Every structure is written in C-alpha cells, then in structure tokens.
C-alpha cells in the first residue's frame, strides 16, 4: 500500500515540512538525567533519520513554579540554551525539524509551589495550588515568550504551546478550574485571554518565520469543560493571533475516560479534529491512537486533518516513516498502546522506554553490533522473550535455531491478544514473525528442544525462554474438571458455565473477567466504544460527555455472573499498571463483576466454591472456578538443558515466574543478545 497523503509535504509559507507526520510530545526522563541531553540527542536523531516530518519535544517549563516536578526541566535563562542546542543540532544534521513544547503544569505540579488560576486542588496531585495574582499572570505570559525566544536561540524550528490535557492554560480556559473575577476570569472571553496573550507575546518575540503550534483541548472529557462553541471560538482567535498549526488535545489527565490506552480504538478521536476543520483554515493535527501508516493515511485522505501526530509509535519504531515510504509497513514495530514502559515509567519518575522496543531512550546504551565470534545458538520457546533474543542475536550475525513446541509463535501473547481491547498484540507477533524471516532465523514449529537434539546437532549455547505453567492450588475438590486454569479457557480447551469464580486478581484475573464479560470487543467498534464511555460526538454538553451506554450483561449477550476473588486484603488491582489500572477496574464495574478481597479458599464441591472472608464463611454457587493465580517455572526443562553441558541462559518467565511481564521478557532477550 502507498501513502501519498501521509508523505505529502506541508508548506507553512516560511518553511516546508517534508511530510504530514508529527512526532508528538513525550517526556522521556532523559531531560533530567545527568548527561541526558546527549542521550536525548541520539534518541531524536534516530527519529529524524527515520523520516518524521516534525518532532515535538517533551514539555519544558517556562519558569520554576511551572515545573511538573521539583527537578523537571525548564528553559528560562540563557545559560540553559547550550544543552538544548545539542538536541537541535543532532536533529538538523539528520535532516529533520524540531519544536520545543512549552508546558506550565499549573495545578498538576507535583510540588508545593504550584500556581493555578484559582486555589482549586487537582484530584490527581497531593498539593493545593496558590491562586495566581494578576502580576503573576502577566509575568507568566512574559515567561512563555522568553522561553520561546530562548528556544529559537537554541536552534529549535518552533515551539508547541501546551494548551490541553488540563495543564495551566487549559485551567484558565475552563470554568471548572477558573473562578476568578478579574480580567482573567468570568466570561469565556476573559478566560480565553490568557492563551491568546501568550501566543501574541510569543509571536512578537520570535517573529513571523518561527513555527507556533498550539495544542488545543478540543474535547475535555470532564464536567464543566469547554463547550463546542468555546472550542471553535478559541481556535478562531488563536488563528488570528498568529499560530501556525493547531494540534488536537483530548481529555484532561483527571478525566475518567481512557484516551490512549490499547483498548481505545484506532483513530477514535479523529472525528473531533474533522469537526473543527470546517471552522478554521489553519492546518490541524489529528492525534491519539494513530499507530499505523494505514490509519494515518485514511485520516488524511478523508480530509479529517492536515497532519497526524504519533508519539509512542516512534518509541516503538524510529524507522516508521521510512518503512512506510519504502512499501515495508509490515516491518514496522507497531505501538500496542500498553503504557507499561512509557507512561507508567514517566509517572513513576523513571526513564521512559518501550515494551516492544527496549532500545527506545537507550540508543547510546543498547546496540547490536556485528559479532566477531559467530555462534550457533539453540533457543527454546518462541514467546516474546525467545523471539526478541532470536531476532537481535541473528542481527549481530549469530546462527539461531528457534524451537517452538506448539504450531505457532507468540507464547503468552497468543492468549493475551484474545482479551477484548488487546487486539494490538497481534501486531507484535506479526512484527517478530517478519523479523525472524528477515534475519534468517531457522524456526522449527511443533518441535520440542530436548537433550537428544542437542546431542545430535552442534550448538555453542542454549537459551531457554519457555517453561512457564499456570500455578495450581492444592485444595479439596480442586482436582474437579470444573476447576481449570486460565490458559485452558483462553485456548478454547474448555467451555464455562454461566456462573464463574476467578481466583487471583492480578493482571491475568482482570483480563479473564473482561474476556468472560465481553464476547464482542468494543475496541473494534469506535461508535460502540464511545457510547460505552459516554463520549458524545454531537457535543451537546460542555466537555463532550454524555451518559455511558454499557447495557446489561443479558442485553449484550454475556449473561454470565463473574466473581473476581483476591487473597490479599489490599485494593483490588493494586498491582496493575499505574496509568491503566483504573481503566480495568472501571470496565469490570461496567459489566457488573463482583470483586472481593481478603478471601480464603476452602474447597470446591457440588454446591460451589467455599470461601471465607474474615470470620464469615459462604458458598459461591458457581459452575466453574478459573485459576488466575500466577505462574510457575518448569525447572525440569532447565535441568534437561543444563545436563547437555552447554552454557544455558534463562530469560522471560522461566527466569522469573510471576505475573506475565512481556516488558521484562523482551528486554532480557535484547540484553542477552547484546552480550552473547
């Protein structure tokens, strides 16, 4: 497939972008690390070499009190310019263009010195902000302009003003967070004065030949958010004020609606960009869950937007654009929207990376140079760890033979991709299958690696990436055929009754509950998904919200009663992803799943599952019990390999059998391949 609209240049008058692809803003954590800007330069260099039309950096504060965290990066003084120039020079040498995002956290600042339009605490941060005085408002406007001027001095091609996601500018615009009664609050015109004065001040400072992107919150997804008429009016005013491009912002961080997680349908919010495109003439950028060149081309070809923003897809594959341009989109390492190594790391103040690409943000540390000591390596298990190792080791020049006892590769990903909202896992399997062929890895399906094979063939080393089995419970009645493990259910080996108890409320338990309650995934039907989460395409209410339409289990065809049980008394789903756990809990609540903590399991018999919570015993009259209580390593496989006398390496679940952890598995495979 060709992508003529995606690859078409965009003329802004004073400058020309080589295609319609924006690498959206992402905070990597390198901005605050010692020597981080040198690493950041290589990170962006590779994306520029990969063909992206315009890069936007992670958010940089215009002043001290606007920082997201106490040690977050800011650009306010001339002496800070030099480190930014390291980045811009690297991008320009690679033939790319780059804008710096200017972001003031407002009440989202994770420190006691945060400022906001009004003294209204955010529900997602522990600190109550101070209300800005009129003098501080004017000073902050100057700080934005000063930061933009310094960005130009540092060599940036432009800046992006972060006016969405619930940060300071969004807080001024919205009546939800602005209850001022001075020139900066009250009527919409007064609330909108803050972003307009910022844009005017920046344009006056940097001149006419500098890109100004304004990231406009087109859909707040919170109560008392902006109305559609207000969004349109602000966009028109911004155009008059001199912005070059308007980028789409979707949802505040405090919104209880998922916006970028894997369960969000591809391109689920491009309709709102299209809605605004009828109102303004300035180029518009569509964003959120655009992760393939095909969906990007569709958005552009249909006229929904003038550019597309993709952020995490460039964590997953820096060569995204080049591969699309050369007709090799099947070789793109697709972002699966898991959040596990990017956003979850960012919010934990760790360096961001990528589950499917462990080199992301580690470009100066993880590399696969050609080996001077070629080896023949046997790999047991074609799950994520085994495939990753095989591809990376083969790329270095090793001869790799990958053994898989089953008829297909993918391992636990073949189970995960059956969960509603996790269809993207298919893309990772497709990517590795193509990479195995590209790097000439010998793949032996339906073949178990054993001692006889090792004795019959010459191998230098063995990598074990298989051997994880579900953990079983030794309790009375648990040998009954109606007590099954999660793998048997997902692989279709058993059929369950209408009443089911799930033992174990980690990621597997939550996934199984979702699987049992939603036979048809809403992630594959955008309109159905929007209705499920109460997003109104007609935009009849401020914020764009309406009443969620999830229906009852009977109405959706899933007349099943599900109990999710946890032995620990801690919060249900506490160990889930930092940025996605709330989504999983909300989905189960939508489907009426009964969740209990502090449960002791006694036995299973004809009456059902006997449990005890505290001092009270009860019986759940269920047809089946599904065990979702983690994994165990099959160490007998390891012992058999070690008996060969060859060096044996363990990666993935066989090394640490806990909750399924593809992030660790793929990274282990990469790190072993780098040093073997």
TrEMBL record:
Residues 6-328 form the NADH:flavin oxidoreductase/NADH oxidase N-terminal domain. The keyword Flavoprotein applies. GO terms for biological process: fatty acid beta-oxidation, unsaturated, even number, reductase/isomerase pathway. It holds the Pfam family Oxidored_FMN. Its cofactor is FMN; [4Fe-4S] cluster. In the N-terminal section; belongs to the NADH:flavin oxidoreductase/NADH oxidase family. This is NADPH-dependent 2,4-dienoyl-CoA reductase.
